[in-house]
Write a structure and sequence with these properties.
The chain is an all-alpha fold. Helix content is 80%, strand content 0%.
């Protein structure tokens, strides 16, 4: 088995066996990773000449983050989450709007602001997930592929 296949299998197993809190943290981790990549490529594009291939990679990273935000939005439970769910929904909606506009205008400041806020939310979710007793996953693998 090649290293890439083993790594992919490990990631998939980790995702399948993760509890809900851990999955949310993984989604945040991937969103932050994708925005970091987009910002780095954008900054490289500003110092170097514009490369159409690089612009495509920036766009893909931002779009992946938008997909993750959408997944986080649809996973909100408004009945149990109440006001917190409503606030998170509004925040995710704002993040998506900011990213669309930042991607169009190639604005690293706006992307960094969203990335920083996502990182803060990630840390909060991580603290909650670590305090909550491990729950057994009971779900099908549907939705967004965060394994790679």
């Amino acid at each position: 088995m090649s290293y890439k296949n083993a790594s992919s299998t490990y990631k998939e197993t980790t995702i399948r066996t993760a509890g809900q809190g851990q999955l949310i943290v993984m989604l945040y981790d991937e969103a932050v990773k994708q925005l970091t990549k987009a910002v780095e490529l954008l900054e490289l594009n500003k110092t170097d000449k514009r490369d159409p291939g690089r612009i495509e990679l920036i766009n893909k990273a931002v779009m992946k983050t938008e997909e993750i935000l959408t997944e986080l939005m649809v996973s909100l439970d408004f009945e149990q989450g109440g006001e917190i769910s409503k606030n998170l929904f509004s925040l995710y909606t704002w993040f998506n709007r900011e990213l669309v506009e930042a991607n169009i205008s190639q604005n690293t400041t706006r992307m960094k602001a969203v990335k920083d806020m996502l990182f803060e939310l990630r840390n909060s979710w991580s603290a909650v997930a670590n305090q909550t007793p491990a729950e057994k996953p009971n779900r099908e693998m549907v939705g967004l592929n965060i394994a790679g």
